[in-house]
Amino acid sequence: MDRTLFELAPETRWLGARLEVFDEIDSTNLFAERLGHEGAPDGTLVFADRQTAGRGRLGRSFFSPGGRSLYFSVLLRPAMPPEQVPRHVFAAAVAVAETARANLPERCAVEIKWPNDVLIDGRKTSGINLPAHFEGNRVVFAVLGIGVNVNLARDELPEELREIATSLRNAGGKSLDRVAFAEELLVQLEARLDQVRAGAFAAVLDAYRNSFRMAGAKVRIGGPGVAREVIGTVLGVDEEGALLVKPPNGGADSVERVLAGDVTILRGPV
Ligand code: BTN
After folding, report:
1. What is the pLDDT of residue 1?
2. What is the distance between the alpha carbons of residues 127 and 11, in angstroms, rounded to a whole number?
3. Which residues contact ligand 1 via a Cβ below 6 A?
């Protein structure tokens, strides 16, 4: 019998000092945003077994059926300039990738697709987003939303996702204890968020680069809300996590620095 998310008891210090768990909710992000407006503390954690209106990046929806996966949001009140707030998504991607790797057989290839999708054997297993609320040039709060496909079976995925998405169970061949996985992930996440807060983002990026396999890939970056499409060859990520892309017809030192967008890997020449 599966343990329920109501049994969650992570061994964290500040992450989850207030913990809200729901069987069903529209979106943990939306609930965390409501709590943010009501003054809930930094580190408040909202989990749901299923979401009826799970939100993805760039205005997309996020498939969120019950009983199999993890959907949660962390309310953050970061004391840092707005341009540094995206650092939290790199911390989250590293925490998810490392926890996934620790729970999978070695044959499974866990990687981060810039900026923050975690893939197993080339298929998406986790999505992360970070809506933020500003007053002038001050971040009042940000909501770190994380979804992880833990135990979904392939035939539980909608047809259109079967070739591009997977779960830890699909890839690794066995079901995991969702509660234990969540507790492990939260401990890793707190440690990485601590590094962001302590000004040690370079350590987060070192770990990020260990899971980054896109160097040399030909890509197109665009998507809703992205002003200008960029096409080229990925060189790596810089010290702020921006993607460095070399356009096909640029001079020897022309490099595009991409801060946001949706990446498509191109198979042919660019
Ligand atoms: C993406 O891949 O586009 C980001 C997906 C983020 C999904 C998570 S699930 C928990 C939290 N609540 C939401 O509505 N969205 C995030």
Report:
1. 56
2. 24
3. 27-29, 51, 54-57, 60, 62, 71-73, 117, 127-129, 145-147
